[in-house]
Amino acid sequence: MLLTNAGTYNMKLLLLICLFLFGTVLFNTATVSAGSSLLSGKQPNAAIDTKGAIRVVFGKGNDIYTISSTDNGQSFSEPEKIATLPDMHLGMSRGPQIASSKNYSLVTAMDKAGNIHAYQLKHSNGKWTRAAGVNDVKGSAPEGLVALTADKEDNFYAVWLDTRGDKKNKIFFSSLHPGKGSWSANKLVYTSPDQTVCECCKPNIAFHGDKLTISFRNWLNGSRDIYHTSSTDKGKNFTAPQKFGQGTWKLEGCPMDGGGIVVGDNGLVSSVWQRKGEIFYCQENQPEQLIGTGRDCALAQAGANTVIVWQEKGQIKLKKLATNTTLELGHGNTPRVYAVAGGKTLCLWEDAGTVQHKLI
């Protein structure tokens, strides 16, 4: 069938209208295309050193791998195998952890017997070597839940769930300082008067300025809420733990979800966590804010910009608090988020045994 000039014009006009409406729908739903698959692996975790280099660590079976970026997450190196750790914990926030400082990066990983292993990278020569183990009582960390951070002067700090003494989970801490061949004597930070903290939720640790903060999900009077404690002397002394938020969660079981924390430029601690299937955020001494529904949340902060990620029904979501904008990043679980140079945000997550990432 031949089209007249008027008919051709009408068809083009209709096509333009359809394209406009389709683009408007995409814009309003704020959906971002799925993250790029880096390679097969699980439980990605990243750290940024003082020069801006990004290093990502993840596990595959019993092997620990790393990739790195020197262009703020635009591209990554080929994977490098750090070590093989027989019977390594991997899954549900149990995986290799990484922290970076001025001259070194450090990775911790846990075996199912309850030992925290460590591996150190010297930035000047690019070589990974085995470092001293973290827990000074063999087999004291069978839950496999540890977190790691560093300051800018090559001091590293770890927190984990530890069952030494009475086989009940407690919050333990240790640090590794320049020139020291071993970690400091392990320090009991908190034990619940109800015998145990939440036994399957990963604790968190963050350092900024002169403030070191630990957060953990407590088990107190039948409630499983997020608490935090801070130190301004590199972990020698900690404040009395305080609860985040106003609500509480009475629960006969473990949610297996430890949330996340950051220490801001103003020295205030911010946290994001799940309670009863809802995601909450609050800054220290401020009211909590409802963010959405889901689990497996984390956050990053650069100046006044706070970004939160979480999993909702198998989808990874990201919210920018400054603009109240929510994006869908793709399918997966256990997201992590990091503030990188240029006002960008790097998000990592796991999807069907692959490491995914998105730079926003």
From TrEMBL:
Taxonomic superkingdom: Bacteria
Name the UniProt record assigns to this protein: BNR repeat-like domain-containing protein
Native species: Pontibacter saemangeumensis
